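The freezer alarm interrupted the setup, so I double-checked each line after restarting. Inputs confirmed:
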Amino acid sequence: METPVPDVVGHYSRGDLLQRLDAALADDGVDPAHPSLESLAPYDQFHGRGLEATTEIAAHVQPGAGDHLLDIGSGIGGPARWFAQRFGCRVTGIDLTAEFCDVADQLTRRLGLQRQVDFEVGDALAMPFGDAQFDGAYSMNVSMNIADKAAFYREIHRVLKPGAWLLLSELAEGDGRPLDFPTPWAASQEASFLSSADQTRQGLRDAGFEVLQLHSTLQQAKAFGARSRALVERGEKPPHRAVMLIHGDIASQAIANSGRAMQDGRLVPIEVLARKAARAAA
Ligand SMILES: C[S@@+](CC[C@H](N)C(=O)[O-])C[C@H]1O[C@@H](n2cnc3c(N)ncnc32)[C@H](O)[C@@H]1O
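Predicted 3D structure, all chains:
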C-alpha cells in the first residue's frame, strides 16, 4: 500500500489570502497598493522570528549584484524580496502552493521588484531548473514538510553551481518526544517530517555538501517569544503576524504548540550554512 501524500497545499491555502493581507495592511494604516518592504515584513516572512531570522542567515553570505539565488519553498516571497533589495541580486522562488506564488507575484509588482524577483509553482523535489544554475540558495522553514530529505538535498545540490552556498533555517527534532498538533507547518503528525540536527548534517554531506556551520537558535527564539508576549500584554500587535494571517483560526493553537515544544526540548530551531564543493581542478 502506498504511503498517503500529505496535503501540503491544503494546509497552507484557503483561496482568499490577498484579501486578508490587504485588510491587515489597511488595519496597520498602510495603503495595500503601495506597501514598503518593512510594512509587509510582519506578514510575508512566514517562518520563526520573521525578518529577524532572514537578516541573521543572510549575514553568513555576501551575494553580488550579478548573482542569481534560489529560494526553495518561497511562500509569499518576503525573504526573496528582502535578499533582492538588500544585495541587488536576482532571486527565483519555487513553491508548491500556487496561491502563495500568485500573492508573491502581486506583492513583488507592488514593490516594483519584478525585474529582480520571480516565482514558479513547483515541487522542491523535482525543480524545473537546469543543472548548476544558481549562485546560492536558501530555504526557510520548508524541510518540515518534506519526507524525503535525501531527494530534497540532492535536488538542491544539482541546481547549484560548484562552490555555491546553501542556507537553511528550519525546525529540527529535539529529544524525540511527539509534538502536539496543529503546528504552523502541519495539521497532524502524518504531515510533519522532522530530522535531528545530526541527521540534517549527515544528509547534507551525503548529498555532496560541506557543512560549514550548524547551530541552534533556541535562545534567539525564546527571546523573540518573550518580546512578542510582552507587546501583546501591553495591547500592541506582535512583530510577527504571518502565522495568524495564513492560518486564521488554528494559528493561536499552532503557535502555542510549537512554542511549548521549543521550551521543553522537543523542537530545536537551527541554522545551517553549507557549500557545494568547487569543481576539482582538471
Ligand atoms: C512555513 S512556509 C515558509 C515560506 C517561506 N520560506 C518563508 O519563510 O516566508 C513553508 C512553505 O514551503 C512550501 N513547501 C512545502 N513543501 C514543498 C515542496 N515539496 N516544494 C516546494 N514548496 C514546498 C509550502 O507551500 C510553504 O509555502
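Quick read of the result. The first helix runs from residue 8 to 12.
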